[in-house]
Amino acid sequence: MFNKQQTPQRINAGFILAIAFLLVLGSNRLNKRHFHTLQSTVNSVYKDRVLVQDYIYQLNNIFQTKKLRFITEDDFTPVANENEKVEKILLDFASTELTTDEFNTLNELNLQFEKLKKSENKVLHSKENLRNGVAILSKQTFQKIDENLNVLARIQIQESEQMTQLSNKSLETNILLSKLELAFLIVIGIALLALIFYPMKTKQPVLE
Questions:
Q1: Residues 145/111, Cβ–Cβ less than 8 Å
Q2: 112: left (phi over 0), alpha (psi -120 to 50) or beta
Q3: Chain centroid, CA 4 distance in Å
Q4: What is the spatial distance between Cα 109 and Cα 190, in angstroms, rounded to a whole number?
Q5: Separation in Å, CA 115 to CA 29, 119, 139, 148
């Protein structure tokens, strides 16, 4: 049937097919970009937010144990193992993708942790230090540590919410593009059918 088509019709059909090809190609590239955004966001939510929430939870438990030890004047021997765990968690925390506020708060938490270790070392060398102001200083340090952990926890919620909104926006855009692609392909299909079954009539030369 294509053999019977005239040259202008063949050109039009080729032009329409070229548009369809470019449309599918462009849509495919856009879909890949949006799916990449979705994949990156999901991975980031897990690596940089869900795991970090677990880090904050572990840190909070360790610091609460330390605080209770100062209150009860219990044995300070386990602090070395606790501090090793805290240092590892803080390093893992620092290796995630941090916002500016998160970076500053984490640095402040590290400073307070260093102060706390000094207080613990003083108590290890002499329990009299508990009566000489170390407990009071440690109480202030614990208060600042709690504040930093609360700030970090709030940041995780805010960042997770923003990432969720980004994922939803990317998904909505992808759905819209898919609908537009389908609509254009239908229009192109109808145009091709019209060219095939309703060929353009050419004007016959007028005989004098």
A1: no
A2: alpha
A3: 57
A4: 66
A5: 53, 6, 11, 14
Residue matched to tokens 């805290």: 86
Cα torsion through 174, 179, 184, 188, rounded to 10: 120
Tokens of 155: 């940041």
By residue count, the chain amounts to 208
Region of residue 133 (left: phi > 0; alpha: psi -120 to 50; beta: else): left
The pTM (predicted TM-score) of the whole model is 0.65
Q: Tokens 């620092």 map to which residue?
A: 94
**Measuring CA to CA, which residue among 111, 84, 6, 98 is closest to residue 51?**
98
Q: How confident is the model at residue 18 (pLDDT cuts 50, 70, 90)?
A: confident
Q: Which helix (H) or strand (E) holds 99?
A: none
On the 0-12 / 13-18 / 19+ scale of CB atoms within 10 A, 58 is middle
Rg, the chain, Cα only: 34
Q: What is the pLDDT of residues 77-108, one digit of tens each?
A: 889 899 999 999 999 999 888 889 999 999 99
Q: What is the pLDDT of residues 21-67, one digit of tens each?
A: 676 666 666 666 666 665 666 666 666 678 888 999 999 999 999 99
Within 10 Å of residue 186's Cβ, how many Cβ atoms?
10
